[in-house]
Amino acid sequence: MKQTYSYREKARAFIVVLLPIFITQLAIVSTGFFDTVMSGHVSERDLAGVAVGVNLFMPIFGSCLGVISGLMPTIAQLYGAGQTKQIPFVVTQGLYWSVLAGLLLIVFGLLAVPPVLGLLQLEAKVEYIAAYYLLAMACGICPVFAAGVLRNFIDALGYTRLTMLITICAVPFNIGMNYLFIFGECGFPALGGIGAGVGTAITFYFMLLLNILGICYIKPFKGYQLFSHFFRPSFAEWEKQLGLGIPIGSAMFCEQSIFGAVGICMTAYGTEVIAAHQAAMNFSTVVYMIPLSVSMTLTILVGFEVGAKRFADARRYTRIGLVLSLVFALLLAGSLIYLRGDIASLYTKNPLINGLLQTFLLYSICLQLADGISAPLQGTLRGYRDVRVTFFLAVLSYWIIGLPVGYIWANYGAGGPYGYWTGLVTGIAVGAVFLGLRLKKIQRKAIS
């Protein structure tokens, strides 16, 4: 990355960083997409089992990756300030505590998952698939956390194309592993939905290997000699990194857990509604990669400019990001209205589930429009390393406004299962307003 001057130069730099991030995020989320789609072609119970497993897994898993993403603004600001000699130490400490966090998460899952599944009163087959899907995924947690640290290191330096290439290589590998273990091809056992967890866990190891090879043999990363020096664990550095990462991860937990909670609430409406809701949420997650990628791009570029004390340039990048995010959201909304039938057919051949899914997809349009404003604002605030207020706003948006509104409309109004989606849209929209007000305050403070 380098300093830019005009809006044209900034827009060009923004796109150069954004496109690889978008492709990378799309490839990452495609693992869950293919898990869900391929399981749905085994049976509706396999689809429902994977859906329940995903709803329990993703809030904790996503929040941990959020904690790890706290390294990105730190490294970006060190890079912008020219303090590159500190980066290997920072990355190494991130590897230490991320692997430890993975081990703790595995232990937590072994203790917590069985009683939680028992409380949901699922069909025996659905509960069995969900439990063993989660067990298979647990085997890949430590390598994917370590890969996340290395990916943040690469992206923070602005070389997002490398992580794009790594993740693109992982997608066909994941599809192949899923195919072998879900359908039992080439002599492998036919595990159904459980096989999706096995295939994805193996893919996590493959991604870690590719990240290590890239850092060791590709410029400029090999110049940092990341694995050539041993740094002792520094609990002071862990505290510093976690002090930034935990609020980010907590905010992501609020977001991820609300979707998980809504998914669990859907169990009251039967297996067909669970399957349709999860398929719609799965597709919404894929589409959300656009505002999320804009958010991550803003974290990198704003962090780089803030580290160099160029606060006016940071504001210009924010404007570019907001405009692009809104344009993308409007274009996708228009496309989704006409293509929802084709999209629903990708997930299921069951006509009942297909009809439910098409209705859920209409609600996802409003969700994407709200995310198109909220996500870039969050990314900008992270670039300023302002994360604590963002966490409290996430609690307000999702748990104080979103879930109560959804519950009331679903159970005491005319919303039914769709009422929870109404609550999600309301919470995100209100949160976006407060995020905008917070950003204005931070920008004024930085310039003064």
Brief summary of the model shown:
The chain has helices at residues 7-40, 44-69, 71-80, 87-120, 124-138, 141-156, 160-183, 193-217, 235-265, 271-287, 289-307, 311-347, 351-383, 388-411, 419-447. The protein is mainly alpha-helical and 448 residues long.
What does this structure look like?
This protein has 448 residues and is mainly α. It has one domain. It has 15 helices and no strands. It has helices spanning 7-40, 44-69, 71-80, 87-120, 124-138, 141-156, 160-183, 193-217, 235-265, 271-287, 289-307, 311-347, 351-383, 388-411, 419-447. Helix 1 runs antiparallel to helix 11 (289-307). The longest helix is centred in the last third of the chain and has 37 residues, at 311-347. It is globular, with a radius of gyration of 21 Å. The mean pLDDT is 84.
Helix content: over 70%
> Which percent band covers the strand fraction?
under 5%
Low-confidence stretches: none
Shape: globular
Give the termini distance in whole angstroms. Answer: 26 Å
Tally of domains: 1
Find the count of extended strands (DSSP E, 2+ residues).
0
- Spell the H/E element sequence: HHHHHHHHHHHHHHH
Largest sheet, strands/sense/barrel:
none
* Radius of gyration, in angstroms, nearest whole number: 21 Å
Q: Overall mean pLDDT score?
A: 84
By DSSP (H or I, 4+ residues per run), the number of helices equals 15
Category from helices, strands and their pairing? mainly alpha
